[in-house]
Design a protein that fits this description.
The chain has helices spanning 44-54, 75-83, 100-110, 124-131, 136-148, 168-177, 204-219, 284-288, 292-304, 321-324; strands at residues 11-15, 61-65, 90-95, 114-118, 154-159, 180-185, 223-225, 235-238, 245-249, 262-265, 270-272, 281-282. The protein is globular and about 60 Å long. By secondary structure, it is an alpha/beta fold. It is 31% helix and 17% strand. Bound molecules: S-adenosylmethionine and iron/sulfur cluster (SF4). The site of iron/sulfur cluster has 13 residues, from helix 10.
């Protein structure tokens, strides 16, 4: 179906791997998920060919994601290939950050614009529990590396899991001096991981009320703020005088199909027009044959089937977040 007037699909989420060095409780089961065999995964050259073809249908922004994209070898070389496509004006990366101290400089040199780093807790013990083994100090070093090498704006993704509320003062304190944009994300029931139901995770209203209380207790009134260079669904707020912002992504309650500008490519070359749908269109053969017209035709087919006029039910996806590129 055609997008509503003024709405274009210009944003590609490109999953470069389904593998990960973490097993976050809301994303993967403790034993992980069956990995896609290496021979079925697109090469970086395949992915860059796809992006070049996707420009023809209007794609101008690419977010590299996974799994954990930095566990795949040589990621800066993919960034450089995408940077060489003039129509792509924004390349971003979503990462858990722990490998950023090693790669931030190289990624910046290759042409990466900015990063989103998942940082669900500032308490080392809770961080380790939520990621099932991650070290907070390594993720924080990743945030520092991103700031140092100018992968800005640096956004922090915080899934609103139970027990987040006592940590809010620490997250707010982080935005006082540092230009960090903390985004509280509603837990999505994708892939069968995490709380039993959405009622077990926190809502935007609960977190917002707690932030406003912090404001009354001394941080000052929370004011609506402009989006720090992003076109996504987040809404941002700022405490007076703070360098950074806090924001919300209502992935479930604020999810409107009519506003969706995204297309996804999985690491095994399947197009997904919706995170919550199980429908996929295989584009790997066309990409590997370097048949640009066939790739464009498949993208158009996928976009034609994209739902813009109704709000889809969440929870129908056949593969989890780490497999389709959250
Ligand atoms: N490994 C990278 C990371 O964690 O940033 C990139 C992939 S991860 C699937 C992308 C984003 O999806 C992360 O910010 C993560 O917090 C989010 N995510 C994963 N599962 C989720 C869920 N069930 N609900 C909401 N967000 C989720
Ligand atoms: Fe890995 Fe990211 Fe999923 Fe955590 S959220 S398990 S880091 S893919």
């Amino acid at each position: 179906m055609n997008p509503p007037a003024g709405q274009t699909v210009d944003y590609l989420r490109l999953s470069v791997t389904d593998r990960c060095n973490f097993r976050c409780v809301y994303c993967m089961p403790p034993e992980g998920v069956q990995s896609i065999p290496h021979e079925q995964v697109l090469s970086y050259e395949d992915m860059a060919f796809f992006v070049k073809a996707a420009v023809e249908v209007g794609i101008s922004k690419v977010r590299i994601t996974g799994g954990e994209p930095l566990v795949r070898k040589g990621l800066p070389s993919l960034v450089a290939m995408i940077r060489a496509i003039p129509e792509i004006h924004d390349i971003s990366l979503t990462t858990n950050g722990v490998l950023l101290p090693r790669f931030a400089e190289e990624l910046k040199t290759a042409g990466l614009n900015r990063v989103n780093i998942s940082l669900d807790s500032l308490d080392p013990r809770r961080y380790r529990e939520l990621t099932r083994g991650g070290l907070l100090s390594e993720a924080v070093a990743g945030v520092e590396a991103a700031l140092r090498f100018g992968l800005c704006p640096v956004k922090l993704n915080v899934v609103m899991m139970p027990d987040l509320l006592p940590e809010l003062p620490d997250f707010v304190a982080m935005t006082r001096e540092l230009p960090l944009h903390v985004r509280f994300i509603e837990w999505m029931p994708v892939g069968g991981c995490g709380p039993r139901s959405t009622s077990d995770s926190l809502t935007k209203d609960q977190v917002m009320a707690a932030l406003q209380k912090l404001g009354r207790e001394g941080s000052g009134e929370l004011m609506t703020d402009a989006s720090p260079m992003g076109w996504g669904p987040a809404r941002y707020y700022r405490f007076p005088g703070h360098a950074g912002t806090v924001g919300f992504i209502g992935s479930v309650s604020g999810h409107f199909c009519s506003e969706c500008n995204r297309l996804r490519l999985t690491s095994d070359g399947r197009l997904k027009n919706c995170l919550f749908s199980s429908e996929e269109i295989d584009v790997k053969d066309a990409v590997q044959a370097r048949d640009g017209q066939r790739v464009v035709d498949r993208i158009r087919e996928s976009l034609e089937r994209k739902s813009f006029d109704k709000d889809v039910e969440t929870g129908r996806a056949s593969r989890g977040m780490s497999q389709v590129g959250g």
